[in-house]
Amino acid sequence: QPITTDMATLTREVKKFATDKKLEIETLKGREEYRREFLGNVSHELKTPLFMVQGYLSTLLDGAMNDKTIRKKYLERAEKGVERLIYIVQDLDMISKLEIGELNLEIAEFDIVKLVQNVFDLLEMKASKKDILLMFDMKYNKPVLVVGDQEKIQQAVMNLIVNSIKYGKEKGSTEVSIEDLTEHKVIIRVTDNGEGIEKKNIPRLFERFYRVDKSGARTEGGSGLGLSIVKHIVEAHDEKIYIDSTFGVGSEFSFTLEKAKVIKKLN
Ligand code: ADP
Questions:
Q1: What angle do CA 157, 161, 163 make, to 5 degrees?
Q2: Which of 7, 30, 240, 250 lies 20 to 30 Å from 180 when distance is taken between CA atoms?
Q3: Whole-angstrom Cα distance, residue 46 to residue 62?
């Protein structure tokens, strides 16, 4: 390669080199910051339930164990804390696999109507505790075949419905509907008439660990990972997720899925 002697070209190249390096350093710094923030969040999320479990266990050991009613109550609470820890660790595991792209999707055809009914069955108890009605738009009395990783899609639908219950009003309702969006796509909507989300908070909802109410004072414990898992799952399918929410009125989360191709039988 001939050496560039033209001063203008040389200056341009030096400048470009410097800008590229600067960008590279900034990206690295960004990643480092991201990692630090992530670790900070993880330990923070783990601390609350861990201290809770420790608290109940030491109170029991300090003598509370002798009272039969208290013993049961505290053991149950400690168990709840451990349960919560398990959920957080499972969510973390899922999210790290999704982020490093290790989670291979097992793509197959399945009936999304049946999947939603399945999730309803699993969440019926949780909903009834808040007197929340789970409704399914019964336009679809027949199967709707879609293509995707059934287990992951079930997790996504589950997270959305769990949220609609967690952030739903007592005696409220959650409605799931499945509609044709285009010839090849369906859209699954989960709508609630719960607390809704303020406009300013919407852009950050899908971030890991993001929670609108960080006070921890509320009873609904969560890790703030649920929605980012949903987003990852939907995007891993090359599909889209939408949110529409009005503060004080309710929210609607929806995502698209590819329909299974109908192969016409020609006899
Ligand atoms: P988590 O529920 O564990 O806090 P998510 O990632 O599932 O985490 O949700 C992030 C935040 O988005 C929640 O903390 C809540 O503030 C808000 N949110 C999610 N779903 C709803 C909903 N259906 N209605 C109102 N707020 C919601």
A1: 120
A2: 250
A3: 24
For ligand 1, residues with CB inside 6 Å are: 163-164, 166-167, 192, 194-197, 205, 210-213, 222-228, 251
Atom of ligand 1 nearest to the CA of 195: 25
d(CA 193, CA 175): 9
CA of 18 to the centre of ligand 1 (A): 43
Give the Cα separation of 43 and 40 in Å (integer). 5
Ligand 1 pocket test target in 84, 89, 134, 166 with most atoms within 8 Å of CB: 166
Q: What is the ipTM of this complex?
A: 0.98
Tokens of 225: 């990972």
Place of tokens 């608290």: 55
> In angstroms, what is the span from residue 224 Cα to ligand 1's centroid?
7
pTM of the model as a whole: 0.80
Q: What is the pLDDT along the chain (267 residues), one digit of tens a residue?
A: 666 578 888 888 889 988 888 888 888 887 787 778 778 888 888 898 999 999 999 999 999 889 999 999 999 999 999 988 998 898 888 888 887 877 789 999 999 999 999 999 999 999 999 999 999 986 767 899 999 999 999 999 999 999 999 999 999 999 999 999 999 999 999 999 999 999 999 999 988 888 887 654 445 667 788 999 999 999 999 999 999 999 999 999 999 999 998 766 665
